[in-house]
Amino acid sequence: MLDQIRIVLVETEFPGNVGSAARALQTMGLSQLVLVNPKCEAKGEEASRLAHAAVAVLNEARVVTSLDEAIGDTVFSVATSRRVRRHLSPLYTPEEAARLVLERSANGPVAIVFGRESWGLDNTELERCSIHSTIPSATATQSLNLAQSVMIYAYSVYQASLAPAERSFDWSLATNVQVERFYEHLAETLGRLGTRPSSNMENLITRFRRVLSRLPLESRDVQLLHKLLSQMDFVAGKRRDGVIPPDESLDRHQ
Predict the structure, then answer these.
(1) I need a labelling partner for 36 at 20 to 30 A (CA). Which of 155, 164, 165, 175 fits?
(2) 113 within 8 A of 8, measured Cβ to Cβ
(3) Which CATH architecture has domain 176-237?
(4) Is 89 strand, coil or helix?
(5) Which of 181, 187, 231 shows the shortest CA–CA distance to 207?
């Protein structure tokens, strides 16, 4: 469905924004870039430099003379704007707009339209689009750079296209048994090192539990900790008496 989504830039004034927009598209799996009557050398050296590895997206961008030509065959379009207009049309966030874009792309081409760097889209252009969207900001007096705005919408579309399981890291958390075996190993190693807790070994291990239980330990993390303890076991075993004299209790000043 990402192939059905096009990013439309209306009368772009700076070539660097065109190149950076192309890079944002490719990074997020989009490829359809349409340039409406660009007011700069949209495919020149500066644009190519900013496009970086997305030069193909830039070179294949379609150049048209009007917004109607850019979105005439679309079944759904989003007009982006930083200002609330007189007609008070509902304003969708990038995330909300992205979900609608993905949904409608199943039925045909869809577009997200961006206006000029200096003053955005005019009212007539806004009326040509299905819905209006804006990026919420902390201040009312500032707006994002065009390429930054394209990146936010491209990212939102890509995220909306992912299955829930693909949107977050797949944690392979250690089981309770694995964690308990580590604490047993830790107590044994501390004993081999001649550790003398201020109270007893059980209380000292509880202090370690207090720290490590707050972490989402994966199985590989526990294995790494076991390797560290095994190395300490090896060092302790190299001493003929099997004990390395401690300087002071580990938990005395905690």
Answers:
(1) 155
(2) yes
(3) Orthogonal Bundle (1.10)
(4) coil
(5) 187
One-letter amino acid of 158: Y
Q: Write the DSSP symbol of residue 241.
A: T
Q: Taking a C-beta distance cutoff of 8 angstroms, is the pair 8, 111 a contact?
A: yes
Is the pLDDT at 11 greater than 60? The verdict is yes
What token pair was written down for 15?
Answer: 């070539």
Name the token pair of 167.
Answer: 């949107």
Residues 6+ apart with CB under 8 A from 186: 205, 208, 225, 229
CATH number at 2-167: 3.40.1280.10
Domain ranges, ordered by start, for the chain:
2-167, 176-237
As given in the structure block, the two tokens for residue 104 are 């409608």
The confidence band for 192, taking pLDDT boundaries of 50, 70 and 90, is: confident
Going by C-alpha positions, the residue among 91, 75, 222, 98 that lies closest to residue 158 is 98
In which order are the strands placed within the sheet that holds 91-92? Answer: 62-64, 32-36, 5-10, 110-114, 76-80, 131-133, 91-92
Mean pLDDT of 218-230: 94
